[in-house]
Amino acid sequence: MAVALLFAAVLGSHQANGFVLKSTSSLLPPSFPTTHPLRWNSARSGTVALSSTAVAEKVTEYPWQKLAGAYTAEDLAGDWRLPYGKIDQVKWEMMKLMGRMGDPSFPYYSAPLSPKLFLDRLFGGKEVLDEDEFKIKVERKWRFLMPVEGDVFRDEPEMCWQMWMAVRGVVEAPEDTEWSKKGERPFYEPNELPISTVMRRVNKEINQQGMHPGALEALWQWFSEGRAAINKEDVLNKLLVIIPEENLEDGTGLTSDNFYVALVDVIKQGIEAFDEEAYKQYHEEVTKERQTMQQLISKNAEWNRRRKAAAKRSAQDFQTYVQFLEKEAWLKAEKAANEQYGLPSKAVSSTS
Length: 352
Fold this sequence. Notes:
Blueprint: H1 2-16, E1 20-21, E2 48-49, H2 53-59, H3 63-67, H4 89-101, E3 103-105, E4 109-111, H5 115-123, E5 128-130, H6 131-141, E6 146-147, H7 156-168, E7 171-173, H8 177-181, E8 192-194, H9 195-209, H10 213-224, E9 229-231, H11 232-242, H12 245-249, H13 256-273, H14 276-341
Parallel strand pairs: 4-6, 7-8
Antiparallel strand pairs: 1-2, 3-4, 5-9
């Protein structure tokens, strides 16, 4: 529902500004990457026509037009991963949070979501969540998908895509929907990728980065207010504080803009208060404990292996000894019978 509302809102705004769409069927998945809301222009998808000079001037302000080719590999050599120092850390962490918390539309983007949907995603079938469960859900179980609506993260998606391509020397290739309709793969040069593939790979890379521990801790403290666990009512009360009434009425719900405005200072304080040295020391201690435990497990497994081997040898030796005793007893019994009836002995005991 949230996805449909997002597309309807974007479509309505573009039509109101003078855009003429040749086909609205391209607005729906799976052809979404070719008509991405942040990439609607005739140069990329061929689905948008401009009706006036004023609209054309407005289009030139779109992120993909001012950021295309804006970065080179040399410009991004100062860091080894996205965002290569080009996006403020607080804003970057908040974008990663919103990309996890939003309504997912795999594998490309996340959209605004209603409070009910957020509660369903967060709690699932549980009534309460403690700190560990909350952090595991947000950082590990929720995948990052690029937030694409609102003004606060207007340029960042395109920046990430352009930087990712610049570092790898990749050139953007046009989407070939005709091949996709036939169930075939289009041919691309080794240094070419369509933007849909770039979107997926950027999402995967950002998802693998995880969350800043200070930002995650600040988000938990904001929801819990010092409590050991939170329930649905606690979270709902917090959401109703930051979601404007008009967003509740039109069904938009939690957007990137109202999330950023409400929590930017909270997340900033959490990042600034984060003690990296203490965090490293804690993880070193945890690593040592795990290594010690692994060594104990390995030694215990080796001891069990040797014990089983010794027990097997002992069982074999015992069985051999029992067979020896049985044979001795049979030989003695046969000898006694032969002597009793005056018959010659056919077997002689090995102990006699």
